[in-house]
Amino acid sequence: MNARDAEGPHEHDRGLSYDLPVLARRRMIRLMAGAGLIPLVGCTSEEKTPAASSSAGCAEIPEETAGPFPGDGSNGVNVLKESGVVRSDITRSFGDSAGGTAEGTPLTITLTVVDAASGCDAPKRGAAVYLWQCDRDGAYSLYSEGVTEENYLRGVQETDGAGRVTFRSVFPGCYPGRWPHLHFEVYGSLADATEATSITNTSQLAFPKDVCDAVYATEGYGESVRNLSGLSLESDGVFSDGHDRQLATMRGSTGDGYTAELTVPV
Q: What is the pTM of this model?
């Protein structure tokens, strides 16, 4: 048992009942800022916000909760306005932080943002993605005990001509109550992202079980083995109602590191 378990229910275990008020506030800000014209229905473990349909069977990435540790100003600290947040290597803390480095199996994340209305054929050039995740121990920088002075595993990238952004990271641990995942927000432009305004989409990426099993068998991920043993994508509070469009395509190995790829229609 680790120290956090001994203190009682882990803060991550509060589930969607804790996450939803945060998501509701974020959506209200978006509506008031004119980012959308139709109110979105809040998600629960039984009902997810329907993705907007478009041509050629392409649909927007499912809208998900940002959780309680977004770091975008909607729940306390705002890392997006800090100099240095626009970066591809997110393994190290930056700026006036404690300067730590996240350890773990190397992971390269490539998200390709496309226009859903085009049938996913047209890339979204000049958009921006803010990505964040927990570390090998299941802790979120800026929020979790022991890493509140760190801001690693958070970063922003502008999409290139093909709609792609790429981040160098480490494979996240599995904490109690949630399937291994990472969070991301899509913005219309880099300026919007660094001002933390006009979010167009908020979603999550899920990792395949076989890769999780392989990574968690390596040094430093011992707690993740125990935490993952009682979980499944089908029982996860976010992915249980469908995860096909959020499951990363993976390649690589524990020795060389992994690459995770996902197409993100918006």
A: 0.82
